[in-house]
Amino acid sequence: MQKIKRGELRMGLDMYLFSLPKIEGMEYDEIQSANARLRQLEEAQNETYEKVKPHIKHFEEFGMSWDSLMEEIAYWRKANQIHHWFVENIRNGEDDPCFTEIVTKNHLQDLYNLCLKVFTNRNNPQDSLPTRPGSYFGRYGYDDFYYWQIEDTKSLLENLLDNFNFETHYLLYQCSW
User: pLDDT tens for residues 67-91?
Assistant: First the structure.
């Protein structure tokens, strides 16, 4: 998939999967909050910082550097049929220009099964993974690009289902448009 440079302004639907460690003694919201305040926590050198410190990763890309508890593990650009599935299945149909939601292994398995179904029912792919219209969401047709995105997603999901550790990490879907 096409990778955008951090800080690069682009119009359209960008979608990610991130890994976030599960940290003993901390709830999901606390971990997310700590991630947003890593610099302040480092300066304070408090108990929370000591809990998250072993999980902090340093990233450098395109002349920028940052620390985070989250690690990007997947990226899509304008794959509106995949976004549509996430909106319908983890957000109960409520789409927002920017949101982050926890994804379970069952979610991944369901999406993977639908990707397979698209290829067995090429006459009606909209029955399995329909496109989702929106400002700058990309193509809405069921053309070669649609099938390429489904194939790419299927391969990505196979890898995650085989290798992602849901016991030690949260999997997060994040979008912006």
Answer: 999 999 999 999 999 999 999 999 9
pLDDT at 2: 46
Nearest CA to 82 out of 118, 53, 54 is that of 118
Q: In the chain, what's the furthest Cα-to-Cα distance? A: 59
Residues paired with 172 in a beta bridge: 18, 102
Helix (H) or strand (E) holding 91: none
**If you write DSSP's letter for every residue of 100-163 in order, what string do you get?**
EEEE-HHHHHHHHHHHHHHHH-TT-GGGTS-----TT----S-SHHHHHHHHHHHHHHHHHHHH
pLDDT in tens, 1-33: 444 444 455 679 999 999 999 999 999 999 999
CB of 132 within 8 A of CB of 80? yes
% pLDDT > 70, the chain: 94
Q: Element (H or E) spanning 57, and its range? A: strand 57-61
Amino acid sitting at position 100: T
Q: Is 7 exposed, middle or buried (0-12, 13-18, 19+ CB in 10 A)?
A: exposed
